[in-house]
Write a structure and sequence with these properties.
There is one protein chain. The protein is of the alpha/beta class and about 350 residues long. Strands 3, 5, 6, 8, 9, 16 and 17 form a 7-stranded mixed beta sheet that branches. Strands 12-11-10-13-14-15 form a 6-stranded parallel beta sheet, sandwiched between helices. Pfam families: ADH_N, ADH_zinc_N.
């Protein structure tokens, strides 16, 4: 099977739309999906960083959604014609997976970031037969088609705009899941969100939907305006005495804080803004050593890393869709669509902050 895909051949290269070859159909437990749309996530672009160990050339993309066109075997739980949102890969049988914590799968890094399932390597090549890295996050959805493990796919109502739903599989799931799953925020709680990009704004929406008082911190006025529209109190990141201002706005300190920036300064500010026993969650990967200032973890404050919003995608994605249908999680307002052929323009707009969440349409 031959189809178009965006191939990244080196960290410095532009994406190139090429013909790629799927040499085999879906194996037992897999599905073939015609991709309707795929969100562009910062994690996709992190392969350009010097610390990345992800193999190239590859087809990236891990916020896909589309329509099932073929199933492998009889036990996928899905049928031809089903509309699905695709999420991250997991082994399904380690202690974390069987404990309903697939984001902490013991094979998460190897399956999603460092080469995927080795048996897939020969199945997916470029038009000349050259090797492409096995499926990125179990998907490689910057393409017209994707083969994914069925357990990574969440069936959705076919009346929904499936092309826009892909970001629910990672970026929006991460931000909203941190609020709804990791913190379990509710009415009367106070939340500070550091960074108002796609993940941070999803967290703001979820916190507002939960009834929490929310402060959003960012350095871009346009992002702060969006956060305010979604119910947060906006606060510029360069404000004098940022921890003190957050404490005043949250009646003595935030019970929860979510950092999406990986900025050591903002992480320390967030810890100082917490009330006693408060919890700061980090979702961005740290690339340098984190130095904590004295006293920031005193009085029961705690710091943890949150992966994929502590989500079971098959549970959280339908919940987010339900909130969206009720007008309480308007994630579609963050999306701008681009043809897949304009992927380099989408990346530039994402890097420049001109768009919160690009979605590529094959």
């Amino acid at each position: 099977m031959r189809f178009g895909a965006a191939v990244l051949r080196s960290p410095e290269a532009r994406f190139a739309i090429e013909e790629v070859v799927l040499n085999e159909g879906p194996a037992d437990g897999e599905i073939l999906v015609r991709v309707a749309g795929s969100g562009m996530c910062r994690t996709d672009l992190a392969v350009r960083g010097p610390a990345s160990r992800s193999p190239l050339p590859a087809v990236l993309g891990h916020e896909g959604a589309g329509v099932v066109v073929e199933t492998g075997g009889t036990h996928t739980g899905l049928s031809k014609g089903d509309h699905v949102v695709l999420s991250f890969d997991s082994c399904g049988h380690c202690r974390s997976c069987v404990s309903a914590a697939p984001a902490y799968c013991e094979s998460f890094a190897s399956l999603n970031l460092f080469g995927g399932r080795k048996e897939n390597a020969a199945r997916f090549t470029d038009a000349a037969g050259g090797a492409l890295a096995p499926r990125w996050f179990g998907q490689s959805s910057f393409a017209e088609y994707a083969v994914v493990p069925a357990r990574n796919a969440v069936r959705t109502d076919p009346s929904l705009p499936v092309a826009l739903l892909g970001p629910l599989g990672c970026g929006f799931l991460t931000g909203a899941g941190a609020i709804l799953n990791s913190f379990r925020a509710g009415p009367g709680d106070t939340v500070a969100v550091l960074g108002a990009g796609a993940v941070g704004l999803a967290a703001v929406m979820a916190a507002t939907a939960s009834g929490a008082v929310t402060v959003a911190v960012d350095r871009h006025p346009e992002r702060l305006a969006l956060a305010e529209r979604f119910g947060a109190i906006p606060l510029h990141a360069s404000s004098d005495d940022l921890p003190g201002r957050i404490r005043r706005l949250t009646d003595g300190g935030a019970r929860y804080a979510l950092d999406t920036t990986a900025s050591g300064r903002l992480i320390n500010d967030a810890l100082r803004a917490l009330r006693p026993t408060g919890h700061l969650g980090l979702v961005a990967r740290l690339h340098t050593a984190l130095s904590l200032e004295p006293g920031t973890l005193d009085r029961g404050r705690r710091l943890s890393h949150i992966c994929e919003g502590d989500a079971v995608p098959g549970v959280l994605i339908p919940r987010l869709i339900g909130l969206w249908r009720a007008g309480r999680f308007p994630f579609d307002e963050l999306i701008r669509t681009y043809p897949l052929t304009d992927i380099n323009e989408a990346e530039q707009d994402c890097d420049a902050g001109r768009v919160v969440k690009p979605v590529l349409i094959p």
